[in-house]
Amino acid sequence: MELVTDPRTPEQLREHYEIEKQLADRLRNAPATQRAQLYPEVYNDLFRRVTHHPQLAMKKDPERSGRMVRGKLRLIERYLRPEHTFLEIGAGDCTLSIAVAPKARQVYALDVSEAITSGSARPSNFQLVLTTGCDIPLPDNSVDLAYSDQVMEHIHPDDAASQLAEIHRVLRPGGSYLCITPNRLSGPHDISRHFDDIASGFHLREYSIGDLAALFQQAGFSRIWVDKNLKFTYLRMPPAPFHMVERLLEALPAGTRRSISRTRLMERILYLTMVGKK
Question: Of 5, 16, 233, 263, which is the most buried if we count CB atoms within 10 A?
Fold first, then answer.
């Protein structure tokens, strides 16, 4: 978990906010029959219009990008074996998937847009797979480890269950899905954090640990746990204790809840890395 202050000017933040909110409203209000086409369209438009977007800036900061990739690899390597097929959902610039490639048999990088992936060197066991939003064009039982970081909150709430069902479908029996997503109790976490109390940008819905555990159960995962990275070790913990903390926080007035949830200690407690096993 890397806590980074956005270095952009207030004018740039406002520009990003207004463009993203406009595009997000198109996606948020679109009927299901149109959303598949809209997912790649609105993201391509965002990256074209917001030239100072943090994801584009990340490509120009190899030191920070490398630091973040190494942190993610430490988690992934605990679940990955050399004979495994790895799937990254929402691969972005594909830096992480390319770093995983030497450690796996096959790597699939799934995204709705090729706008920030172009130019990346691609190993022979790496394949970029474009999706219309929630579908995963891979065979049943073909993936050992699926992974997403900051993706679940970008899926339309009405599509979240469908996406989880697709992930469950492509996983082999015994395969795992590692899902990292910001906790809504300390949000919003998209660009609207600077302007609104509830996510109104491309975070179409942010989730609590309790919210996400219920969705994983609905999708059919046989075991669900929260993976916590402590200073010297990792812990696998059931969602229930965290959900209890969330319920106590939700009983507080909104301002008090937000202040407590955004403390460094509480953000680390609430930070959401959920794992589902098929």
Answer: 16
Q: Please, are residues 203 and 214 in contact by the beta-carbon 8 Å criterion?
A: no
Q: At which residue do the structure tokens 């993706």 appear?
A: 151
Counting every residue written for the chain, the total comes to 278
Residue with tokens 């929260």: 226
Helix (H) or strand (E) holding 153: none
Note whether 156 and 204 are within 8 A (CB).
yes
Within 13 A of 161's CA, how many CA atoms are on the CB side? 8
Residue 228, SS3 per DSSP: strand
Q: Write down the H helix ranges in the chain.
A: 10-29, 32-49, 54-58, 62-76, 95-100, 160-170, 209-219, 239-250, 254-261, 264-270
Q: What distance in Å separates the CA atoms of residue 262 and residue 197, rounded to the nearest whole number?
A: 13
Please state, in angstroms and rounded to a whole number, the distance separating the CA atoms of residues 258 and 187: 8
The pTM of the full predicted model, rounded to 2 decimals, is 0.89
Angle between helix 209-219 and helix 160-170 axes, rounded to 10 deg: 50
Q: What percent of the chain has pLDDT over 90?
A: 68
Cα separation, 38 vs 186, in Å, equals: 28
